[in-house]
Request: fold
Amino acid sequence: MKKTLPIVLVLLLMATSWCVFGGEAPKSAEAVKPAKPPKATVSRPRRPPRRRPAMGPDEMMYMRVPRSKALEMARRYFSGSPDTSKAHEKLGAAYDEEGRKAMIKLVQDLNKKYAALIAESMKPEDREKYEKVLAAEQEYDDTVTAARSKVSELVQNIRKEQGRQDTSWPTRSLTPKLQPIINACFKLSDEQSKQFNQLRRKRAQNIRNLTNSIKAPKDRKDYKAQREYWRKRQELRKQAEQEGEEALKLILTDEQKKACEDLVKAMEERDKQIQEAGKSYEEKLDEIIGREEGGAPSMPSPRPPRPVIRPRKDGP
Reply:
């Protein structure tokens, strides 16, 4: 009897705790606190893109034209003599130019056709805005095309005067720097070509040496040091490029220097006109469809305002 008494007491204590705590062990005061409700997540609308969605006529001038089977068969089987090959090359260039113009005309006609169909499917208030957006887009395209056409004509004239055989060159991506201008426009003599290649390699080596002369900060999280490092790299690169430009000018003739100056001025004027046209285009879009300066649509913020917490007063 004395041996079974402790066992009975232990069983009684276990039964009592089961009844009191519902089969669970007693919890501390911190564990009994109610859990905080999860924060409500509000999905923000994505900002619409500010860039222009479609290509203009000037961009389409550099689209690839489908191959001509007639020219392909002639080049493959009947281009034996040099005179025949030159004639086929001229016809191929004319085919590409005429094909690009035909593609531009086709795209413009399709745009007009489907713009009218799309406008018919819209509400009257949306139709009016849609037509204004199309007008702003057309005005931008006309300005950009006219600005780039002036540079393109000047490049073609310089190439003809220099005696370059191929008079077609993609001038849309041509920058007002001396090295790409020389590659695109001028016909260099053997001595000039030799000096040009030497200076080009020397310029690239100088850029590498100057930019590698400064060491990057070891701590990648030191953002101030990182910014200072990249700022110095850009300054040194700009300095090396300027020195290379001055060295390249020395190998050009007076006629080439004058043509280069005229072309640089024309390209700077082109870039200025395109920038102003793009700014005007964005302002008109903001006025027509009511977009804010940052690019987001003008709508109330979906996030509720934060509650105002007032300080507690001491005393009654």
Residues 23-32, 42-51, 292-316 have pLDDT under 50 and may be disordered. Residues 53-121 form one domain.
